[in-house]
Amino acid sequence: MPILRSAFIALSKNRTMRRFSESSSVGRKMSSRFVAGLELEDALRVAEAVNRQGISVTLDSLGESVSTETEAHKAAEIYHQLLEQIAARKLNANISVKLTQMGLELSPELAGAIAESLARHASATKNFLRIDMEDSTLTQTTLNIVRRIQAMPELRGSIGIVIQAYLYRSQADIEQLVIEGIRVRLCKGAYKEPAEVAFPAKADVDANYVKLSGILLKSPIYHGLATHDEAMITAAKAFATRHKIDPSHFEFQMLYGVRRDLQRKLIQEGYNVRVYVPFGREWYPYFMRRLAERPANVLFLAKNFFRA
Ligand SMILES: Cc1cc2nc3c(=O)[nH]c(=O)nc-3n(C[C@H](O)[C@H](O)[C@H](O)COP(=O)(O)OP(=O)(O)OC[C@H]3O[C@@H](n4cnc5c(N)ncnc54)[C@H](O)[C@@H]3O)c2cc1C
């Protein structure tokens, strides 16, 4: 892992830096490139603006591991409000949820029960709940929870998962998920993983991403390909053309503030695009992971900051 990437991942876990940044106005200003704002209303406003460009949205209320059951329920309540507001404002948006924010590390039963109640609410409002994937120690528990909910006939199709191409296990997981009819978002993977579980070399991750996206595109289910990597996107488009897969059968997904040029280009070409819009006061770890992906963003942000 390149040194800068490791440094930003380490910083993303630094509590002092986090406390300082989240409470400083400079920090908030820097993060606004990738984070919609602090409040739910900010996220809804951004979702409306993104929708106006023909791009759909998935909303993420920022926050990771909680330490009490009350905190988990409080975090879930924001998502219930989002589902209500998406329906009321007729937004083209769904929700993305991290199970650690719903108490996964306190009790998988608690996180599972909260996810189920969100899936019920999503189903009642004709919406969809995507469960984000976190580090590899949580992969199996996350899969178990999503599978249990998908297996309930009334909730079938209301929940989906994320699979990370850097994990060796992902091909087997995807093959099984496709059989179960579960919608997958494929990404490369954002956490620091040991070589025992994940491909250490980027070239291998990329090759696996191309291979797994082929399996997803050929399945009868609507999946999401989350990447800003033009090589991955070109490969997926070529695969779809070769196998006569209509662009309406899948979507590309990107993060808010990243490669907006590419998002617009794909829409013009007739592809579906969804943007992941995060918001909330706990933006620091998310923001640091984005810098880890592309340390050059620091220069970019600094330049814009001083220009402003
Ligand atoms: C919608 C969405 C949801 C995601 N959900 C999850 C999840 O649940 N779990 C998880 O582990 N990971 C998730 N990720 C993150 C993902 O795993 C990668 O870490 C991230 O997308 C970077 O990989 P990449 O495919 O864009 O390719 P990379 O090889 O990292 O980047 C390719 C090119 O894309 C551009 N780029 C990439 N990142 C940035 C950036 N931050 N700023 C500017 N340019 C950039 C650069 O030009 C770069 O050269 C998600 C990503 C997206 C887009």
Q: What is the compact description of this entry?
A:
The chain has helices at 3-12, 15-23, 25-31, 40-52, 69-88, 108-124, 139-150, 170-180, 202-218, 230-242, 260-268, 284-293, 296-307; strands spanning 56-61, 93-97, 129-131, 159-164, 183-187, 223-226, 250-255, 272-279. By secondary structure, the chain is of the alpha/beta class. The mean pLDDT is 93.
Kindly describe this structure.
The protein is α/β, with parallel strands linked by helices. It has helices at 3-12, 15-23, 25-31, 40-52, 69-88, 108-124, 139-150, 170-180, 202-218, 230-242, 260-268, 284-293, 296-307; strands at residues 56-61, 93-97, 129-131, 159-164, 183-187, 223-226, 250-255, 272-279. It has an 8-stranded parallel beta barrel, surrounded by 7 helices. Helix 1 packs antiparallel against helix 12 and helix 2 crosses helix 3 (25-31). The two termini are 33 Å apart. The chain binds flavin-adenine dinucleotide.
